[in-house]
Amino acid sequence: MAKRDETRSDWKKAAAMSDEQVEASIAADPDEAGMVMDWDNVTVEVPKSKADLHMRVDRDVLDFFRKTGKGYQTRTNAVLRTHVSGMRHA
Fold first, then answer.
1. Rounded mean pLDDT of the chain?
2. What is the reported pLDDT for 18?
3. Gap between the Cα atoms of 53 and 63, Å rounded
4. DSSP string, 10-40
5. Which of 2, 15, 29, 41 could form a disulfide with 6 if both were Cys (CB 3.0 to 4.6 A apart)?
6. Do 55 and 62 meet the contact criterion of CB atoms below 8 Å apart?
7. Backbone phi and psi for residue 68, each to the nearest 5 degrees, phi listed first
8. Number of H helices, E strands in the chain
9. Domain map of the chain by residue range?
10. CA separation, residue 41 to residues 44, 46, 89 (Å)
11. Half-sphere exposure of residue 35: CA atoms within 13 angstroms, side-chain side
12. What is the pTM of this model?
């Protein structure tokens, strides 16, 4: 896992690549295999506003999420959202 404000991307190398090299690199990535983007039907959605919250949680729970790094509050929200969604469909 990269530390906060670190990246494993070589942006100088990427900036020096031609469009063809970028496309070839993407095509060679197994995670991208078969992925087709239909940009003609893309929608842009404004994110829902967030509520400020002061909540008491167990220290170990907070530590767990904080150790996941930058964006831990977003991930905590995603876990809560998944739980709520599951409860609504139960």
1. 88
2. 94
3. 18
4. -HHHHHHS-HHHHHHHHHH-GGGTT----GG
5. 2
6. no
7. -75, -10
8. 4, 0
9. 54-90
10. 10, 16, 28
11. 11
12. 0.48
